[in-house]
Amino acid sequence: MALGKLQKVLISESLDPCCREILQAAGLRVQEKPGLSKEELLREIRDCDGLIVRSATKVTAEVLEAAERLQVVGRAGTGVDNVDVEAATRKGVLVMNTPTGNSLSAAELTCGMILCLARQIPQAAASMKEGKWDRKKYMGMELNGKTLAVLGLGRIGREVATRMQAFGMKTIGYDPIITPDVSATFGVEQLPLEQIWPRCDFITVHTPLLPSTTGLLNDSTFAKCRRGVQVVNCARGGIVDEGALLRALQSGQCGGAALDVFTQEPPKDRDLVNHPNVISCPHLGASTREAQSRCGKEIAMQIVDMATGKGLTGVVNGQALSKAFAPQTKPWITLARALGTVLCTAGKQVQGSVQVCTLGTALKEAGSYLTPAVAMGMLAGGTQKEVTLVNATLLAQEAGLKVTTTHSDVAPEPDSSTGLVQVSLQGTPHQVTGTVQGSTPVLRQISGATFKQPAPLSGPVLIYRAKASDASALATLTGLLSKAGGQLLSYHSSSTVAGEQWSIAGLSAPLSNLGELKPRVTEVFQLHL
Predict the structure, then answer these.
(1) d(C-alpha 238, C-alpha 247), whole Å
(2) CATH number, domain at 81?
(3) Which residues form the D-3-phosphoglycerate dehydrogenase ASB domain (predicted)?
(4) Alpha helices of 203-288 — where are they, by DSSP H?
(5) Is 236 a catalytic site residue?
(6) Catalytic site residue 155?
(7) pLDDT tens, 463-510?
(8) Which domain covers residue 215, as residue numbers?
(9) Which among 236, 337, 444, 465 is annotated as catalytic?
(10) Which of 102, 162, 195, 475 is deepest in the core (most CB within 10 A)?
C-alpha cells in the first residue's frame, strides 16, 4: 500500500458537505454518489483510492476485489459490520471508523426510547392524531427507583447510564473488557449476566454485533427476566433475537420494546414493528445534524492525515501501520522488516516458527508492531501480490508462518538504552539481531557472528559468507562492481565462526551476475532493503 498516494475518494452515501470540502481542500478528487446499486458500486470503485461509507453500503469481498487501487475504507460512524474487515485486511486495505462521532446522538436516542417506553409517548401521540382522548389507556411508570441494565459499557453505554441516573434509575451492567472498578467511576455496578436478568426493569444493549453477542437476548434469557421487562436496542440488529422478542411480547414476559435497528433493514417481517407495545425507528441513532457533521468531518480529516503522512487514527485493522507514522517507531519497523527479509533469505524458507525477541525497556511495547513488520519482511520475496503491515500477519498465518514475540527489559551493551531486536528461525541455527543508530537500521549479528561495526540495512546490499582466511571474495566483488559501473558504498565484516565470516556490502545498484563471486564464497545473496 503506497501511503500518501491517495488521489481519488468515493463517498457512496449522503454525508455532511464538510466531508467533501475537507477532502477537496487537501487536493483529493472526490466523487459523491449516494444510493449506488451493487453493480454500480463495483464499476465506480475500480479506480478509487479511498471509499467513505455510512451503514447502508455493503463493502463485501467482491467489492474489495473489484477495487484495484483501494487503500482505505472510511466508515463515518462506529460499527463496521457492513465492511468485510477480514477481506480488506487480506488485501492490505485499511479500515477506519469514527468511534466517537455519533456516541452522544446514539445515547440521547436511547434515553428518549427509555422515556417513551415508560410513558408510551408515541402511542399516545398517535392516538391524539386519530382524534381520541385515551387518558386511562396510556398508564405509564416512573423511572425513579427502577433498575436499568446496560449491556456494553463503552462510550455510548456509559453516556446512557449517567444520563438515566439523573432520573433516579439504579444502573447495573456487564462488559467483558471494562473492569468493575472503571464502571464504578460512572455509577454502574457490574454483575454477571445470570445475575442481571432477574434484577432489571429495563435492558439496553450497546455492544458490537459479534458471534458472542448475536442473540444475546433470546428465549432463555427472557425467561430469566422479570415479567414485563422493557428492552431497548439502538445498537445493532441481531443482538436481540427478534423471534424471541416477539414471543416474549406476545406472552407478556416482555412489556415493551424500543427498536432503532433490525436484523434486516428495512424489516420485511412487520410483526415486531406492528406490535402495539413496540416503538420503532428507521435506524436514527446517528441521524442528528451534529453527529453527521462530526462523523463527516472526522473521517475526512483521518483520511487527509493518512494521505499527508501526518498519522492514523480510528484504525480498525492494521494497528501496526499507525505506528509507522511516528518518527520514533518508523526506523524500528524498517529494521524489523529488513531482519525478516535477511532471515528468510539466509534460512531459505518461509514456513515454520519465527521468534521475535525485543530487548531493552525502550522496546517493551514494540512487539505489537514489530511482529507484523518481521512477517512482512519474511513474505516480501514470495508470490503474494502485495504484503503490507495491514495484511502481513494474516498472510503469514496462511503461508504456514507462525511469528511469536517475547520481551526482556535487559539489552546488552552498547545497546542497553536504545534496545535490540532479535529474530530467530526456530529449529535452525539462523538468527539475526539488529538495532537502530540514529534513524538507521543496522545489523549486529547473523547466525552467531557479530559485526565489528554494525552494518546498515538499507538500499541494495550484498551479503555473503566465506572463509575468513580468503580475501579474494572482496577483490572479486570490487571487480564486478567496476565492470558494471557500480560503487561499493560500505563494507562490514563479522567475527569468525567455524573459520568463516559474514560480509555485508552496500552497493550503489544491484549486480546482475554473481557468477564470478559464487565459487569464492559459501553462500551469497542480494537484497534491496
Answers:
(1) 15
(2) 3.40.50.720
(3) 330-439
(4) 219-224, 242-251, 271-274
(5) yes
(6) no
(7) 999 998 888 999 999 999 988 888 999 999 999 999 999 999 999 999
(8) 102-280
(9) 236
(10) 102
